[in-house]
Amino acid sequence: MIIERVEPEIDAGRFPIKRTVGERVVVEADIFPDGHDVVSAVLKVGDKEWPMKPLVNDRWRGEFAVSELGLHSYTIEAWVNHFETWRRDLETKTRAGVEIGSELLTGAPMLEHAAARAPKVHARELQGAANRLLTGDVALDGRISQLMFRYAERTFPVQYERDLKVLVEPELARFSAWYEMFPRSVGTFRDCERVLPEIADMGFDILYFPPIHPIGKSFRKGANNQLEAGANDPGSPWAIGSEEGGHKSIHPELGTHEDFRHLVAEAHKLNLHIALDIAFQCSPDHPYVREHKNWFKIRPDGSIQYAENPPKKYQDIYPINFETDDWQALWQELRSIFQFWIDQGVKVFRVDNPHTKSFRFWEWCITSLKEKHPELIFLSEAFTRPKVMYHLAKLGFTQSYNYFPWRNHKRELTEYFTDLTRTQVKEYFRANLWPNTPDILTEFLQFGGQPAFMTRFILAATLGASYGIYGPAFELCENKPRERGSEEYLDSEKYQIRRWDTAKARNMRDLIKRVNQARRAHPSLQSDHSVEFLETDNEQIIAYSKAAPKEATREGDIVITIVNLDPHHTQRGWVGLPLERWGIGPTDNLQFHDLLTDARFLWSGRRIYVELDPQFVPAHLLVLRRYVRTERDFDYFL
Question: How sure is the predictor about 506, in pLDDT bands with cuts at 50, 70 and 90?
């Protein structure tokens, strides 16, 4: 018995696939015997089994649901089903008019042996079938085949050579909306509590804070990353550590650990999770620099190497040297940072630049933490080469930043998201789409005005089941770069405190709230894998659908997003609909409900006409409903 070409299987089983609670794992494999016997196969997950069914050309498929957090093993077992082989040959001989007395004598003991292995209620059925065979009655129904599948002895079963793994994570790993906010621009943690209801009301799941630790004074940067800081400049939160403490301490102007725990608890009451930024780097004033100088790179003159990302220089930050001889103590200490904040109630972490740290460290750290806390979420901030980003996901990072901010054209978006959702990458890499961050103000946002912000938000929130915004700056359409050609903000909040008047952001807030309501109401928007790009006759218009199966809602759920990619001009065009794949006839009457404007309109046919003004709303977010005439002769929409 041969079992090969198993899918999904990541790097010959080296890494697990990923699912969230309630999702299904669909497994396919080539399974065939030497000869012409009938084959049976099952997926084995612990002490449970799910039958696999043949497709074509010796390809088999099976699926199972996952319901418990953590790492689980599964494999495939296949065997020659001697009963079904016998039954097939019996039917063939019966149709040919061949004497079958010997075959009946062969089949009856198979049923009897299975009866001996079955519980009484099923043993009676199997024994009865054996008795009927001995009297010449060959009418065996499908029920007997099912019982034989369960209770007949599996002769020489073959198991796939590897135990495969599935990492089951909370729903938040698959579907989440993030809002980034610098707490120091609001005030203290107690002040932050006052804005929690606003963020929850907009529909966000996660409130993410940049580092909240004490900030070093040595080489502190001033406004707009100036080398000389003024007396009142607060410094960059990523220059972590001072005489007041390091990664387990809180900046005294924000409050105490008790204040932080109170904030976490208040957020949970609103179904908000507080996410922290974990940045493994230190200011020159960090206690680690005094106590563990060997954890840093020492230059020939005896000084410590500061961080650089040419042309950027970060004189206020020392990277950690993962090649230190004292690596075991370093690893233990860094993991303890996560554990410390877990103990304060934090379950979600954004990790700064993980691609510049040891791969082996991340695998050990995340795996060991998740063994105790399977509910943890880790967001990788690694804007780097694709294979590095993907490998970090394999090592355990739950979600990842990605290239979405720089994919602006229809072809770029289509190719990129087809790769993320239609290749093996989908089994382990979850993209979290951010149109902006404190480090990224794209050219599209700089020159497109509010229409550009609306466009990129709608794309992020509908292409991605998980997305985020750098909050107040995005709501207020902050789009002034530090200088021409730069993606750095003028008066960046990374280096100074900003007092945002978000009351001016009403238009964006209304849009954000409406889209987040749609995401929560429609299962199709809560996953990435069903995205299907639709034909349009205008390159400035992109259209795609997402569909949830009928088991997700009573009648299934199809949402179509159509976006004008041009923030300056109205664009018009036709969009093709794959009606047959949706089980809809070409002449069926359709109703479209636009979740952005609440407009409704009727249509029939394989194409719809759109006209999108970016100054109004640059997109349609359409729920598809089919027009039905009932037996009672009145009409309604499904």
Answer: confident
pLDDT the model gives residue 629: 45
Kindly list the distances between the CA atom of residue 428 and the CA atoms of 103, 381, 470, in Å, as whole numbers in the listed order: 50, 16, 25
Q: Band of the pLDDT at 139, cuts 50, 70, 90?
A: confident
Residue 135 burial (CB count, 10 A):
8
* Residue located via tokens 């934090």: 346
Hey, which residues does 77 pair with through a beta bridge? 42, 159
| Side chain identity at residue 611, one-letter code | E
For residues 536-542, average pLDDT: 98
Give the DSSP letter of residue 143. Answer: H
Q: What is the pLDDT of residue 587?
A: 87
Read off the CATH number of the domain in which 78 is found: 2.60.40.10
The secondary structure of 78-98 as a DSSP string is EEE-HHHHHHHHHHHHHHHT-
Confirm whether 531 is domain-assigned.
Answer: yes
Give the C-alpha separation, 224 to 496, whole Å: 8
Tokens of 250: 């809180």
| 482 lies in some domain | no
* Count of all residues that appear for the chain in the document: 638
What is the three-class DSSP state of 394?
A: helix
Report which residue type is found at 122: H
Final residue of a structural domain among 168, 197, 216: 168
Locate tokens 């040891």: which residue? 358
From 105, 139, 168, the end of a domain falls on 168
**Residue of 387, 413, 414 whose CA lies nearest to 400:** 387
Range of the domain at 553: 526-637
- Whether 50 is in a domain gets the answer yes
- The answer to whether the beta carbons of residues 434 and 469 sit under 8 Å apart is yes
Share of the chain above pLDDT 90, in %: 88
Q: CB neighbours of 511 closer than 8 A, spacing ≥ 6?
A: 454, 457, 458, 596, 617
Rounded CA gap, 431 and 442, in Å?
Answer: 18
Q: Which amino acid is at 134?
A: L
Residues annotated as catalytic (active site), given as ranges: 352, 381
Pairs from 92-100 (Cβ < 8 Å, separation ≥ 24):
94/138, 100/138
Q: How many domains does the chain have?
A: 2
Phi, psi of 273 (to 5 degrees): -105, 135
For the four alpha carbons of 101, 105, 111 and 112, in that order, the dihedral sign comes to positive
Whole-number Å distance between alpha carbons of 21 and 19:
7
Is residue 553 over pLDDT 80? no
pLDDT digits (tens, 9 = 90+) for 58-91: 999 999 999 999 999 999 999 999 999 999 999 9
